[in-house]
Amino acid sequence: MTTTEQIKVLCVRMDISIAELARRIGQSPQNFSAKLKRGTITDKELVKIADVLNISYKQLFTLPNGEKIELGNGGNA
């Protein structure tokens, strides 16, 4: 599943439109929709989406020795 698909599913499950999500993260609906079509959503934007929806977001690499390299918003859920 692509990031764009994940965001669309998230909006359905959170009962929020893409346009409303765009406004909450401080972007115009047109700009945000264009980014979704191009697949150019940044990690910083994903963290902001999680923050405004009061949910957690994590991106994680796990090395062979078990060490974890993580990006996220710390999680509210």
Question: How would you characterize this protein structure?
Answer:
- The longest helix is centred in the first third of the chain and has 12 residues, at 3-14.
- The protein has 77 residues and is of the alpha+beta class.
- The protein has one domain: 434 Repressor (Amino-terminal Domain), CATH 1.10.260.
- Helices cover 52% and strands 13% of the residues.
Give a summary of the structure in a few sentences.
By secondary structure, this protein is of the alpha+beta class. The protein has four helices and two strands; from the N terminus they run ααααββ. The chain has a two-stranded antiparallel sheet with strand order 1-2.
> What CATH architecture do you see?
Orthogonal Bundle
CATH class: Mainly Alpha
**Radius of gyration, in angstroms, nearest whole number:** 13 Å
- Distance N to C terminus: 22 Å
State the helicity in percent bands. 40-55%
Strand order of the largest sheet: 1-2
Name some characteristics of this structure.
434 Repressor (Amino-terminal Domain), alpha+beta, two-stranded antiparallel sheet, 4 helices, 77 residues
List the helices and strands and how they pair.
Blueprint: H1 3-14, H2 18-24, H3 29-38, H4 43-53, E1 58-62, E2 68-72
Antiparallel strand pairs: 1-2
Helix pairs in contact: 2-3
